[in-house]
TrEMBL record:
<keyword id="KW-0560">Oxidoreductase</keyword>
<protein>
    <submittedName>
        <fullName>Dehydrogenase/reductase SDR family member on chromosome X</fullName>
    </submittedName>
</protein>
<dbReference type="GO" id="GO:0016491">
    <property type="term" value="F:oxidoreductase activity"/>
</dbReference>
<dbReference type="InterPro" id="IPR036291">
    <property type="entry name" value="NAD(P)-bd_dom_sf"/>
</dbReference>
<comment type="similarity">
    <text>Belongs to the short-chain dehydrogenases/reductases (SDR) family.</text>
</comment>
<dbReference type="Pfam" id="PF00106">
    <property type="entry name" value="adh_short"/>
</dbReference>
<dbReference type="InterPro" id="IPR002347">
    <property type="entry name" value="SDR_fam"/>
</dbReference>
Length: 285
C-alpha cells in the first residue's frame, strides 16, 4: 500500500500486542536505539528477553529503563562480542546451559562506516560484525530455534507413514528378485498400551474417558499381527495393508513410489549401508 509516494507502515497498537508469556527471545544490540525499543515491545508481550551485547553497563541501564516502564519485565543481559568468534561460541554455549527454549532471535546489532579495522579473527570490521558475527551466532543457535517447532505427534505420524512406505518398497524389491519372502503392513487399531503415556495432557483427558468404549485390549490388538503372520489365506501375498485383520486402503502418500524410494535411500544413507539392494537379500538369506 502506498500513500503520497511513501510506503504505508502497518503496526500493532498497544492493545494488540499478544501475550507471549513463556516465549524466549535473544536480541543483539538490545541496549540502545532500535534494539532497546524492540526489547520494550517484546516485554510488553511478556516475552522473556536476553540482551546480547558487549557493554554490560549500557545493558544494565537499558534493563533499568525497561523495568521502569514494564515492572514485570523478564529481561537479562548476556555478554556477546560479534567481532569475536570465541565470544560468539561462548555465548551460545552459556545460553544452552541455561536450559531455556529459544523462540525468537533478532539479529539487530550493527555498525556503520567506522574507520578501517578488523575483527579479532581478522575479518574486515563492518562485514565481520554486521554479517559474519550474526551468521555464526544464528547457526550456533539454530538447533535451539528448530526445537520449538518439534511436534511429538507429527513425528509419530511420520514414523508410521515410514513404516508403510518401507513395507511396500521392501515387498517390491523382494518381488523383483523373485524372493519368496513377502512384506505387509499391519495397523492393529486403537489399542490401550503404554504408547499413550507419551501423549500431551490435553489428549490424555479424552483418551482416559473413551478408553473403555473405543480402545482394544493389547490381546485384541495382537489379533491383526497374528492373522497376517499365521493365516494360510495370506501365504504368498505381499504389499498389502491390514487394519483389524482385513486388507484396507492406506493413505495416498504411502503409495507414492518416489517417497518409498526416497525413504529407502535416506535410511540406507543414515545407516551407512553402501550396497543397499544387495544388503536386503543378504539380511534375509
Amino acid at each position: 500500500m502506498k500513500s503520497s509516494g511513501h510506503q504505508k507502515v502497518l503496526f500493532l497498537s498497544p492493545t494488540e500486542f499478544p501475550n507471549l508469556d513463556g516465549r524466549v527471545a535473544i536480541i543483539t544490540g538490545g541496549n540502545r536505539g532500535i534494539g532497546l525499543e524492540t526489547v520494550k515491545g517484546l516485554c510488553k508481550a511478556n516475552v522473556t528477553v536476553i540482551i546480547a551485547c558487549r557493554d554490560e553497563n549500557s545493558a544494565e541501564k537499558a534493563i533499568k529503563e525497561v523495568k521502569e516502564e514494564f515492572p514485570a519485565a523478564k529481561v537479562d543481559f548476556m555478554k556477546l562480542d560479534l567481532g569475536s568468534l570465541k565470544s560468539i561460541q561462548t555465548f551460545a554455549k552459556n545460553f544452552k546451559e541455561k536450559g531455556l527454549p529459544l523462540h525468537i532471535l533478532i539479529n539487530n546489532a550493527g555498525i556503520m562506516c567506522p574507520p578501517y579495522g578488523t575483527t579479532e579473527d581478522g575479518f574486515e570490521l563492518t562485514f565481520g560484525i554486521n554479517h559474519l558475527g550474526h551468521f555464526a551466532l544464528t547457526n550456533l543457535l539454530l538447533d535451539e530455534l528448530i526445537k520449538k517447532y518439534y511436534s511429538a505427534l507429527e513425528a509419530y505420524n511420520q514414523s508410521k507413514l515410514a513404516n508403510v512406505l518401507f513395507s511396500y518398497e521392501l515387498n517390491r524389491r523382494l518381488k523383483e528378485k523373485n524372493c519368496p519372502v513377502t512384506s505387509n503392513a499391519v495397523h492393529p487399531g486403537i489399542v490401550n498400551t503404554e504408547l499413550f503415556h507419551g501423549l500431551p495432557w490435553c489428549l490424555k483427558i479424552p483418551q482416559d474417558g473413551l478408553i473403555y468404549l473405543l480402545f482394544k485390549t493389547p490381546k485384541q490388538g495382537a489379533d491383526s499381527s497374528l492373522y497376517v503372520a499365521l493365516s494360510p489365506e495370506i501365504e504368498g501375498l505381499g504389499g498389502l495393508y491390514f487394519v483389524n485383520s482385513s486388507p484396507s486402503q492406506s493413505s495416498e502418500e504411502s503409495h507414492r513410489e518416489d517417497l518409498q524410494k526416497k525413504l529407502w535411500k535416506i535410511s540406507c544413507g543414515s545407516l551407512e549401508f553402501q550396497n543397499d539392494s544387495n544388503r536386503t537379500v543378504n539380511l534375509l538369506a
